[in-house]
Amino acid sequence: MSERLELINHELRNIVLGFLPKPALKETHVKGLSFSHRGDEAGAQGCSMYNHGLTFIVGGTKRSIVGSREYIYGKNHCLLVGVDVPASYCTINATRDNPFLAISVSIDRSVLSELVAQMVEPDSVANDKSDEEGALCVGEVSEDTWEAVLRLCRLIDKPQEADVLAPMIIREIYFRVLQSSLGRHLWRFNARQAVGAQISTAIRWLRENYTEPLSVKNLAEQVHMGVSTFHRHFKDVTCMTPLQYHKRLRLHEAKRLMLSENMDASTACYAVGYESPSQFNREYKRQFGNPPHRDVKAQRASGTEF
User: What's the burial of 106, exposed, middle or buried (CB within 10 Å: 0-12/13-18/19+)?
Assistant: First the structure.
């Protein structure tokens, strides 16, 4: 690591630790910026919805699993989440003195699309004929990108400056990531005609309508694909079938409602679209390892945020 990057990392670490005195996930007052995780224990496990955006790892190492795919990333890595996906995770070597720390920058699709329209399409995108677009990508970004992330984080206690400067800095971060090894993935996921964009559209619909029964045929028609083609590309991106994704969306939302809004299991079950509490309890246990009440009680006792 260069001396410049080490200095940037040191300041970012101090900012995040100052904002997160204990393990948590927390949004800042800067629109689009959040300190997405602090983990003080190796082997700490959890699950969450990974939202479309960029995550910059300040310290520690983490393993994330989406469907059947595993991703391992650590200090100075950037994690690109191309589409919203439910994932499980585990911190690997975190301690109280060296916690896992991450900074997340959400992606505004309109800003990114405007930026992409002003740029020349990289050869790596134009010449790439592969269909596979995994939901997560891990890579390294330039020191200039990290410096822009630092300037953004310095605005967390300067609301007047943040209102003016943050949108410009976030736009710069998008631009610099587009120029990195992750640029091809970010570009393709936001290109209007790319398969990734069609799957992103389908996932946005699922996120907004998860309480409704799912018709894969109707969803495929919405994104102008045949059912078999849609099914194949959806699984390429998410490592899940549309039905599996729909089910996990419901279960993750039910867990959030129980943890964040103190709903009981039966209320959460109906709130996310289940008609049978017994089916809900069975599928919840299969996904999270314990029945709803026991799982929520254990997670609260561990202090893990959802």
Answer: middle
**Domain 3-190, classified CATH 3.70.10.10, yes or no:** no
- CB-based burial of residue 208 (10 Å sphere; 0-12 exposed, 13-18 middle, 19+ buried)? exposed
- Map tokens 């206690």 to a residue: 157
Q: For 184-188, 246-250, 288-292, which range has the lowest pLDDT when averaged over its residues?
A: 184-188
Q: Which tens digits make up the pLDDT trace of 93-103?
A: 777 778 889 99
> Model pTM greater than 0.90?
no
Of 267, 268, 274, give the one whose Cα is nearest residue 212. 274
CA 95 to chain centre: 23
Contact 102, 161 (CB under 8 A): no
Hey, where are the domains in the chain? 3-190, 192-306
Q: Lowest-pLDDT range, 119-123, 231-235, 255-259? A: 119-123
The tens digit of pLDDT for each residue in 19-36 reads 887 666 678 899 999 987
CATH number of 192-306: 1.10.10.60
Residue recorded with tokens 């959030």: 256
HSE (side-chain half, CA atoms, 13 Å) at 252:
21
Residue 118 amino acid letter: Q
